Amino acid sequence: MVRYKSTRNSNISVTASEAVLKGLADDGGLFVPDSIPALDVSLQDLAGKSYQEVAYEVMKLFLSDYTEEELKHCINSAYDDKFDTKKIAPLKEADGAYYLELFHGATIAFKDMALSILPHLLTTAAKKHNMKEEIVILTATSGDTGKAALAGFADVPGTSIIVFYPKDGVSKIQEKQMVTQVGDNTNVVAIHGNFDDAQTGVKEIFGDKELAKRMKEQGYQFSSANSINIGRLVPQVVYYVYTYVTLVAEGKLTCGEPMNVVVPTGNFGNILAAYYAKQMGVPVKKLICASNENKVLFDFFETGVYDRKREFVLTSSPSMDILVSSNLERLIYTCAGENSDVNAELMRQLKEEGKYEITSDMKAKLADFAGGYASEAETAATIRKVYEKAGYVIDTHTAVAATVFYKYREATKDDTVTVIASTASPYKFTRSVMEAVENKATDEDDFTLVDRLCEVSGVKVPNAIEEIRNAKVRHTMVCDKDKMQETVTGILGLK
């Protein structure tokens, strides 16, 4: 049975359901599996299976204290007609790569892939442990997690959710999606600050022992919907396994032949899931980490130095505008030989000094990864190029990854079959996408651009966009970044 340890204290060991419930370890560390389980069914046998069937074969190995009945119920409740395709995560071939479309869920971003199932995993875990407290989901978002978490947890009995996002740090469509969210248990707060400020604030609230005691006394317990929660990460491993076996089933790969994966990367969860899929036995050759102009990860893979002390750039790919990539800690822990003391010291340096440097031995263990980045101009040019060459419209985050793919292939001449994680619908970033396609700035309103994008792409406007056109704004709360805890206690009415 797989158990979960804290990256900052290996003596802490919990079951999968306990890790899902807690979200973050008490010492501020992230939960990691004590070993990555190998697939116990062959990739050839998985080829042609449904998304739900593949999900069960992967998730049963990581979430080993959930019964078969519990897990299948969670999977079938999540991956249903909330998705607009039975394939759940279809592949689209365009200009030399396969785009893994992870945006067919209710909020048209890849976060739906995990946040459709997390509420079910969480409420199942609460029942398993006879939990009486209300679960308070506390989350920071750079744009997409917030809406997907809100949609997943809206009116789920025994839960409430509070989402913090950077005011002026998300797209207008992303913001409208969040502030119009219905549900008596939903709360959305804009902060004066950037995503890193929001994420730091949330981590500090989680780490406040006195607050946790007050909450428990008054019938509440925090958990997280961010990718720091292992219940977010495990479902993401599924779609990389599914992608590989789909390529095999379609004759695009022979079983055992490797694929490359390019992931537009902010908080590092999505590419870490691909790394875990590789550890499970999926033949992934290179994990290509694509950054935008906030290229802290690119610099790290080049030098072994992680340095967050730099200008924070607001880009057209806001979900990647991050300088502290939380999930990288899980990879650092692995590279440190699962030495939690070494990892804890590096994380202390990052918090207190703003940077850390890994050893040459640790850097050697990153050989599976390659890094690349795209400027704003390159991102726009790639959107235009893919549209002109293939008639396919991609969003800004996917375009960062596609740019890095083109650069990597040119530099290495590596012609391995490549999958690009397409993390959001272009409809979430209509202004940037349309300005790129038409190669000119526009002052038209976002919903006029939505209709133009429909004409250009030939893709129907998703329900997620139609339902917010005239939706009423329900959430207007704003706070300073140093007032986040005060805001939380006010929302919960804590004495």
How would you summarize the topology of this molecule?
Layout: E1 4-6, E2 9-14, H1 16-22, E3 31-33, H2 43-46, H3 51-62, H4 68-78, E4 91-94, E5 97-101, H5 111-115, H6 118-128, E6 134-140, H7 144-153, E7 159-166, H8 172-179, E8 186-192, H9 195-206, H10 209-217, E9 220-223, H11 230-249, E10 259-264, H12 269-280, E11 284-291, H13 296-303, E12 305-307, H14 328-335, H15 340-353, E13 355-357, H16 360-364, E14 369-373, H17 376-390, H18 396-412, E15 418-422, H19 430-438, H20 446-457, H21 463-466, E16 477-480, H22 484-492
Parallel strand pairs: 5-15, 6-7, 6-9, 7-8, 8-16, 10-11, 10-15, 11-14
Antiparallel strand pairs: 1-2, 1-3, 4-5, 12-13
Helix pairs in contact: 1-6, 3-4, 3-11, 4-6, 11-12, 17-18, 17-19, 19-20
Describe the 3D structure.
With 495 residues, the chain is of the alpha/beta class. It has a domain at 91-106 and 231-466: Rossmann fold, CATH 3.40.50. Helices cover 45% and strands 16% of the residues. The protein is built from 22 helices and 16 strands. Strands 4-5-15-10-11-14 form a six-stranded mixed β-sheet, sandwiched between helices. It has a five-stranded parallel β-sheet with strand order 9-6-7-8-16, with helices on both faces. Strand 4 and strand 5 form a beta hairpin. Helix 3 (51-62) crosses helix 4 and helix 4 (68-78) packs antiparallel against helix 6 (118-128).
